[in-house]
Amino acid sequence: MSKQVQEIAADCRQLPERYIRQEDKEYGNVTNADVFLPAEIPVIDVSLLTSSPLELDKLKSAIINWGCFQAINHGIESSFLERVREIGKVFFQLSPDEKKKYLREEDDVDGYGNDTVVSDHQILDWTDRLYLTILPRDQQKIQFWPQNPPHFREVLDEYTCKIELIYEVVLKALARSLNLQEDCFLKQYQTTEKTSARFNYYPPCPWPEKVLGVKPHSDSSAITLLLQDKEVEGLQFLKDGRWFGVPVVPGALTINVGDQIEIMSNGIFKSPVHRVLVNSKKERMTVAVFCPVQSEGVIGPIDALITDETPRLYKNVTYTVDSYFQIYQHGGRPVDNYKI
Ligand SMILES: O=C(O)CCC(=O)C(=O)O
Ligand SMILES: [Fe+2]
Q1: Has residue 149 been placed in a domain?
Q2: pLDDT by residue (tens digit) across 98-111?
């Protein structure tokens, strides 16, 4: 496995070729990276979603317009979110040798490492990651869960329980916002669904206009819950051909829908393209939870959404770990491959 980005960044007199972004015809290049247009991403009060039709409407239009929202009053205390950030930061501050105990194996997705290389031409993301399956619990690969800090496992387990509750509230609300039975999105998954947490670490880069923390992509998940860095921004969403930066909202989780919701909603909700810029001076750390990305079951548009006026737009799809990773590394919107 090649050097971790954190090691490259520690002594970076010259940028390795493999990280330098070229002009991107589809999504624009990075050289305008310092133009950070702040997005007016709607702020949704999750505690109101079951009782307030107004808040539900706000959620629906947030997803239709942006594909994402800033979730507040979601039931997780800010002090606990801080503990989640802290276990990630402590891990990435360990010595290289210590971290390498958790290195991902060649054919695995769980573990610590830099961008998975799937082709010789792939331009690499300026990030190191710690990727852990968190659900179902019997599929956690505990050998990759850091023993340092000692409370890593306890904190991540507790975070998982809290995230599960939010996930359910949001998926039910999304269904109700389309006048569907509230468990219709949840029902498409069986017990095999796999949820994972990814700690993303973006070291500073002296040439931020030449690299990307994460290439433009959409998530394959149903929804992704992102705990942003407390101070450093970097995430951008593409809307109407322009990139908008996501501001840091204290105590909020940034939630976006993924390809699976786009398919199930027959395209009413769109899985947004997003990317990550890196900072020239400051490191950035985020924690993304993908719910559920690797369901082995088949998903397709909800029957009630297929009518004469709104015909089926997507095929039925089976997600597997392998297809997910192959596709993710290529960036873009994998869901476009499943259009009829
Ligand atoms: O770190 C971020 O801000 C977003 C990361 C992301 O988009 C991903 O991990 O899929
Ligand atoms: Fe993403």
Answers
A1: no
A2: 999 999 987 788 99
Q: Is residue 206 part of a domain?
A: yes
Residues 6 or more apart whose Cβ sits within 8 Å of residue 140? 132, 133, 134
Total tally of structural domains belonging to the chain:
1
Two tokens at 214?
Answer: 């994460």
Maximal CA-CA distance, the chain: 61
Ligand 2 centroid vs 308 CA: distance in angstroms? 34
Lowest mean pLDDT among 34-38, 56-60, 299-303, 306-310: 34-38
Report yes or no on 99 lying in a domain: no
Substitution candidate for ligand 1 out of 274, 287, 333 with most atoms within 8 A of CB:
274
Task: List for the chain the helix, strand, coil content (%; round to 5).
Answer: 30, 20, 50
Tell how far the Cα of 311 is from the centroid of ligand 2, in angstroms: 29
319 in any annotated domain: yes
Burial call 141-161: b when 16+ CB within 10 Å, e when fewer: eeebbbeebeebbebbeebbe
pTM: 0.94
For residue 152, the number of C-alpha atoms closer than 13 Å in the C-beta half-sphere is 20
**CATH code of the domain containing 272:** 2.60.120.330
Task: Give residue 290's domain range.
Answer: 34-74+160-338
Q: Which two structure tokens, joined as six digits, stand for 199?
A: 């700690």
- Residues 138-148 have a mean pLDDT of 95
Residue to mutate, 200, 231, 285, 330, ligand 1, most ligand atoms under 8 Å from C-beta: 200
